[in-house]
Each structure stands twice: as structure tokens, then as C-alpha cells.
Amino acid sequence: MVNYLTPIAASLGISIFMLWVVMLWSSVWKLLALWKSARKGSVGWFIALAIFNTFGILAILYIFWFSEMKCCKTLKKKVGKKKVKKKK
To answer: pLDDT value at position 36?
Structure first.
């Protein structure tokens, strides 16, 4: 695995260790954001987070900003509380 990471690290001008740190950082935030978006039922965010690699920036923004917005919470409350009609 290190054999093909060496040219990538060299072209970026960083060490292999630093490349591993960046990859680990990005992976942890991405997994946390994917987990949170799946638990909240945010399909659009799940797809966007799965496709785009932004070194954890998009994942951090989703976790701390977008997933906590009030408009999303009120919408989910309305959708989740559907009335069930009883048949007589």
C-alpha cells in the first residue's frame, strides 16, 4: 500500500506519515457524518457525503451545522407524526 502512496505524497510535497494522518482525519469525520445522516434519514446528505471527499470539511459542517438546523427538526416532527385513521 505504501508503494503507491509514496508518489502521491511526493507530488503533494508531504511525508507519507502526514498523508496517513490526513487520510485518517478525513475517514473518521466522514464515517461519523455518514452515520449521523443515516440515523436522521437524510438521504441527500448521505449521498453527498459518500461521494465528495473534502478532507472532512463537509462532514464537520454537516455534523455541527446542518444536522442541527431547526427547520429540519420541525419537518421531521411533522412527517413522523402522521395520524392513523381508525376504521369503524
So the answer is: 93
Contact partners, residue 86, CB within 8 Å, separation at least 6: none
Q: Which residues contact 79 (CB under 8 A, 6 or more apart)?
A: none
Distance (Å, rounded) from C-alpha 39 to C-alpha 34?
A: 9
87 located within any domain: no
Question: Does residue 45 lie within any of the structural domains?
Answer: yes
Q: What is the pLDDT of residues 4-32, one digit of tens each?
A: 888 888 888 988 899 899 889 999 999 99
Question: Which domain, by its residues, includes 13?
Answer: 2-80
Q: How many domains does the chain have?
A: 1
